[in-house]
Amino acid sequence: MALCIQLNIFDLFLTDILALPRKKEYLYHQIKNWKDHENNPHPKG
Question: pLDDT tens digits for 1-45?
């Protein structure tokens, strides 16, 4: 049972590592959009 849980955690951990680049890219775009919005709160059309 404990081994099964450990494998599950390891699997989640591995999935997280593989997803990191995508997460970073997503965060980067979020921050960029937010900064753009701060610099230009009312974009024209």
Answer: 677 778 888 888 888 888 888 889 998 999 999 988 888 877 665
**DSSP string of 1-45, one letter each residue:** -HHHHHHHHHHHHHHHHHHHHHHHHHHHHHHHHHHHHHH-SS---
Question: Tokens for 36?
Answer: 């753009």
* Separation CA 15–CA 2 (nearest Å): 20
Half-sphere exposure of 21 (CA within 13 A, CB side): 1
Q: Record the pTM.
A: 0.48
Rounded CA gap, 3 and 23, in Å?
29
End-to-end CA distance of the chain: 58
